[in-house]
Design goal:
CATH architecture of the largest domain: 3-Layer(aba) Sandwich
Bound molecules: coenzyme A
Strand content: 25-35%
Largest sheet: 6 strands, mixed
Shape: globular
Structural class: alpha+beta
Number of helices: 4
CATH class of the largest domain: Alpha Beta
Amino acid sequence: MKFKYWMQIWNLSNKYRFSKIGFFKFFIGYMFSPNYKLVYVLDKKKDAVIGFNFIEHNRIKRLVVDEEYRGKGIGKKLVPDYCNLVCTDKKRDAVRFYQNLGFKIFFEDKHIVKLKR
Ligand SMILES: CC(C)(COP(=O)(O)OP(=O)(O)OC[C@H]1O[C@@H](n2cnc3c(N)ncnc32)[C@H](O)[C@@H]1OP(=O)(O)O)[C@@H](O)C(=O)NCCC(=O)NCCS
C-alpha cells in the first residue's frame, strides 16, 4: 500500500474527527498482526482514497466515506460480510446505515450504540 494512501486516510480520519490515537493503534496493529484489516476505495482519476474501513477481527473500528462520495453505495461496499460488530458514537448519524446492512442494536447508552448481525 502506497504511503500517500495512509496520509489520505489520516486526513479523512481527522476531517471527520476520529481519534488520532485510534489511528496509530490501528496502524501499528495493521503492521504487525493479520487480525487487522484495511478495506479502502480509490477515486482512480485522482489516485485518492475516498473511503476506508479499519477492521479488527470481525469488528468495524472506523468507517468513513468522504462527503462528496456518500449515498453511492461505497459505504456498503466497504463492509465485508464477515464484519458483524460495530460500536458507533451517537453523534454520528450512522445507526440507520448499519441497520440497512442487517445490523441490530444490542446495547445503547447516552453516547454510544453497539450493533451486531
Ligand atoms: C456512514 C457512511 C460510511 C455511509 O457511507 P455511504 O457511502 O453514504 O453509504 P451507502 O451509500 O453505501 O449507503 C448504504 C445504504 O445505507 C443508507 N444510508 C447511508 N447513510 C445513511 C444515514 N446516515 N442514515 C440512513 N441511511 C443511510 C443509504 O441510503 C443506502 O441505502 P439503500 O441501500 O437502501 O440505498 C458515511 O455517511 C460516513 O462516512 N459517515 C461519517 C463517518 C461515520 O459516521 N462512520 C460510521 C461510524 S464508525
